[in-house]
Predict the structure.
Amino acid sequence: EEFFLAQSSIDRDIRTQTVIFTLLVLAISLLGSVWISRGIVRRVQTLINERERAASKLRDLKSLQNWQGVAKILVHELRAPLTPIKLVTTDLDHQYRSMSGEAFGAYLKDAQKLMNEQIEAIETMISGFTAFGKLPIADLKLNSMNQLIRDFLENYARSFGEGVSIRFEPPEGEVMASLDAKLLRDLFYNIAKNAVEANAGKTDIDFHLSQDENILILTIRNSGVPIPPSVAETLFDPYVSTKSAANMGLGLAISRKIAFDHQGDLRLIPSASGAVFQLEIPLKQSAVL
């Protein structure tokens, strides 16, 4: 009997020790897991910080490269109107000595006209560059997109000339969204003006407003000359244009910036004829009444 009691005590001690040992192992494992988890979290956070710094550096470098490209183009474009001005002023003394008074008067009049035209071109370039650098912050307020388009057509449609027809295809209800009326008017104008200039003042422009799941979509389509694929990838970059140098290629860059300010985007949709631009705004800011 004493043997069995001793054996039972030993068994209890073994079980107790086993439980204690198990609990110690679990506690150590838990502490180790916490320590390892903390180490993993710190490492992940370090990787995230490093990635953010690298991304920030890449954005800064890309921005610097973009502005370097803009500066090169601006210098090139300014050189074009400055060249004839330089030629006229250089030739002025020679013409004065070789021409009669009446002939020189006519030459001087033509020279003055030429210089005024080139100075106006320079002023246009500088004004466009200044406007691009001073875009206002979007003042988003609840507005009807339908009404903004109707107002634009009423106030601006006739200004593009008799060869231009602008139509609006609205949805059944009013599309309400947080919008900056003035900036969107500029966006509409830039795209319409771009279409008119690209098609020699003769084109049809259609505004189509719709919704697709969580996206508010405004499609602006024009008839006429399609945009070359070689230009499409850089079309929204500053100073990229399919038209004359005097256009400066800022309108679409400004328009896309306006779309970004509405937490949306402005894209060129591939088309065999004409050009199709699509403005998208997240539906979380919008509603149909």
In short: Helices lie at 2-98, 101-133, 145-156, 181-198, 229-232, 251-261. The chain is about 60% helix and 15% strand.
